[in-house]
Amino acid sequence: MNDTPGAGDPPSKSEQTRALILETAMRLFQERGYDKTTMRAIAQEAGVSVGNAYYYFAGKEHLIQGFYDRIAADHQAAVREILARESDLEARLAGVLKAWLDVASPYHEFAVQFFKNAADPDSPLSPFSPESEHAREEAISVHRDVLAGATKTKVPEELRDILPELMWLSQMGLCLYWIFDRTEGRERSYRLAERGARLTARGVSLARFRVLRPLVREVHELFTDFLPGMTRALPDPGRKTAGS
Fold first, then answer.
1. Rounded to an integer, what distance in angstroms lies between the CA atom of residue 117 and that of residue 119?
2. Which residue of 38, 127, 188, 215 is most buried, as measured by CB atoms within 10 A?
3. In contact, 178 and 187? CB cutoff 8 Å
4. Contact 177, 120 (CB under 8 A)
5. What angle is formed at CA 127 by the lines to CA 85 and CA 170, rounded to 5 degrees?
6. Is residue 86 a contact partner of residue 61, using CB atoms and an 8 Å limit?
7. What does pTM read for this prediction?
8. What pLDDT is recorded for position 124?
9. Which stretch of 71-80, 126-135, 161-170 has the lowest confidence by average pLDDT?
10. Considering only CA atoms, which of 136, 139, 130, 140 is closest in space to residue 61?
């Protein structure tokens, strides 16, 4: 008899405890603010020892990474049906962006709370930090899937690594707007997602012309060189190194 846990198995006690600590932290961050919430308070509210809390999460920053990973996983699950159904690039991208807004919606006020920490380029909470690499790569992989399944859009081989990264940066712009969006139901953020998808799809379509490909690479290099953390986070695959 095989005792190896499978995808359909119920979560183990360890997984349940980890999830409980994360859920408790998210609630306290929203109620008290990120800076005012301590690991001791999280442990007490979750009904576990402080040592147990630190066993699962080395600190508050690691709890945020757990939150990032959860959002990324939930988003990947949410887009499966969209990507299976749509073959048009604009429809695929608009669906993916609006699905992210749906997934993130319950955490809007929490995002406002910790944004000042995440905006610090030296903070491990930054989406460009090395600590955020796993969630960042998961998000970029969604955009790779968006491009790969757009049957009517031909993506030049030399841009297949660059374009998903630029599309993810566009999603980060949407995220920033969403944080400050105070319209009912974040209606303007959804409109921005639709219009942004339209512009991005047109840009990707134009990138098939050889004369425009250097411009795409230059835009990518601009972000790589000047956006805090991008040099570490998104190395430019088109850049020549010494001796090449």
1. 5
2. 127
3. no
4. no
5. 50
6. no
7. 0.80
8. 81
9. 126-135
10. 130
